[in-house]
Amino acid sequence: MDNLNAISSWSGGKDSCLACYKAMQEGFKIKYLLNFISREYKRCCFHGVEAALIKLQSELIGIPLIQKEVTSDMQKYEDEFKSAVCQLKGKDIKAMVFGDIYLLEHEIWIERVCRDIGIFPVEPLWNKPVSEILTEFVDAGFKSIVVSARADKFDKDFVGREVTKGFIEELSSRNICPCGENGEFHTLVIDGPIFKRPIRIMESASVLKEGFWKYWFLDIRKYN
Predict the structure, then answer these.
(1) Which candidate among 115, 136, 148, 149 keeps its CA 20 to 30 Å from the CA of 181?
(2) Sequence spans of domains, the chain
(3) Rounded CA gap, 167 and 163, in Å?
(4) Distance of alpha carbon 207 from alpha carbon 43, whole angstroms
(5) Alpha-carbon distance 222 to 147, whole Å?
(6) Strand partners, 35
(7) What pTM, to 2 d.p., does this model score?
């Protein structure tokens, strides 16, 4: 592409972070991190992380953050997603980076929506082996912790754990994707080669919440 300015879809977790990092290595200039916050809970969708923690990530990475509130209704979410991207697309940006790995329905949705709004999707992790992705993430020097996990698959002690290469064997033996691509768990990146310094978690607790599935969430109460 002639214009390498891009937006990066940003959840605060390991996959979106690694995708952003790899896109930067490929020559893309990431102008904004785009993060979606639940209108109902005022926290990062799916991950359950408060908006201020995502803002701290942005400050430590040095890339401006755009946060938008969205609904849980899929059609309304699509409209809100398109609107948010279109507001940024006019600023000399022609590409958007995503951290999808192998879920075809996600890829189909992204391809269609990006085509509708005229932006080029960049998928640095697509179809790569999950073990390779996790290994690359850790070997690059990134650190992340589990901030939410399905209660039917994990106990409360799983949240708060640091993501390591040990996840590959441990979770694969339980037929769970080591990257949590099916929503089994979500993470928060707290350090890495693009961070000015680590995020320090000083106080947290595991909290059980019910929705479509029961999830354990890491309620991060004190950090800097």
Answers:
(1) 115
(2) 5-122, 130-223
(3) 7
(4) 15
(5) 14
(6) 67
(7) 0.94
Low-confidence ranges of the chain (pLDDT < 70): 1-3, 40-47, 211-212
- How many Cβ atoms are within 10 Å of 111's Cβ, its own excluded? 12
Phi-psi region of 86 (alpha: psi -120 to 50; beta: other; left: phi over 0): alpha
Say what angle helices 14-25 and 130-139 make with each other, to 10 degrees: 70
Cα distance between residue 78 and residue 87, in whole Å: 14
CATH fit for domain 5-122, picks 3.40.440.10, 3.90.226.10, 3.40.190.10, 3.40.50.620: 3.40.50.620
What element of type H or E holds 24? helix 14-25
Compute the Cα dihedral for 152, 154, 160, 166 and give only its sign.
negative
- Using DSSP bridges, classify how beta strands 143-150 and 185-191 pair: parallel, antiparallel or unpaired: antiparallel
**DSSP label at residue 158:** G
**Cβ 107 vs Cβ 28: under 8 Å:** no
Which residues, including other chains, have CB under 8 Å from residue 185's CB and lie 6 or more apart?
A: 146, 148, 149, 150, 153, 154, 158, 159
pLDDT tens-digit profile of 173-191?
999 999 999 999 999 999 9
pLDDT digits (tens, 9 = 90+) for 79-122: 999 999 999 987 789 999 999 999 999 999 999 999 999 999 99
